[in-house]
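Researcher: Quick test of sequence recovery. Tokens follow.
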């Protein structure tokens, strides 16, 4: 008899959805996944990764509660789900190719600079305008164009397409774009957090940043201690 694992997802959080479904697929069990909204990213991930119904089905359940195992640390117990081929805009693409011409950049979701309140997402993770300018200049000197992958309104499929087809690597704050890149075998530089949850500046090596690193562990990821380190 096939073993079936039922699991309820939380309403938000692109990164946590990737971490949770990676762990669940790693079990090898048939999955019945419940999500609270029709726009949940799990629908996109299933289609892009080409996960068959025999492995995973998704049910819409508006009042579903989080599974008791749901926690940001869940990723520490399994590798990322990393398909060799993905489906994007009706075509199939191989992941993990070399020689791509661009560096992806996932920066503050509302643009560059410090002239906006730090409470705007991701208020505790974005770098300064100076750091972003230096990152872009470094990519240019190294012979790469830069594409951004976190504009407001950009679909999961669009992000996956840019990463798969164009990006030799991704430079990102700690968040969903980096998690997506891991699943597509795109190397990452994950910038350290700038603020803690109260909006106060944190010191390099702070425990909260080390915990965040554990979410992204794979052999293609580099964690600079300071934002200036990569420039």
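Model:
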């Amino acid at each position: 008899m096939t073993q079936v694992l039922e699991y309820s997802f939380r309403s938000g959080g692109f990164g946590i959805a990737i971490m949770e479904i990676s762990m669940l697929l790693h079990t090898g069990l048939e999955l019945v996944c419940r999500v609270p909204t029709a726009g949940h990213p799990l629908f996109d991930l299933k289609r892009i990764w080409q996960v068959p119904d025999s492995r995973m089905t998704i049910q819409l359940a508006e009042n579903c509660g989080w599974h008791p195992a749901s926690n940001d640390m869940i990723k520490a117990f399994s590798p990322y789900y990393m398909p060799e081929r993905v489906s994007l805009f009706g075509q199939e693409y191989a992941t993990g190719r070399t020689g791509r011409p661009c560096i992806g950049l996932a920066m503050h979701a509302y643009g560059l600079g410090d002239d906006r309140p730090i409470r705007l997402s991701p208020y505790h993770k974005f770098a300064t305008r100076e750091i972003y300018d230096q990152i872009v200049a470094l990519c240019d000197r190294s012979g790469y164009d830069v594409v951004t992958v976190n504009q407001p309104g950009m679909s999961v499929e669009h992000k996956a397409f840019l990463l798969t087809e164009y990006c030799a690597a991704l430079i990102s704050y700690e968040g969903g774009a980096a998690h997506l890149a891991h699943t597509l075998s795109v190397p990452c530089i994950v910038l350290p957090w700038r603020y803690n949850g109260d909006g106060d500046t944190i010191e390099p090596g702070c425990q909260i940043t080390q915990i965040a690193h554990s979410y992204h562990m794979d052999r293609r990821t580099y964690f600079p201690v300071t934002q200036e380190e990569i420039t």
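Helices lie at 14-26, 41-49, 129-141, 156-166, 176-183, 207-215.
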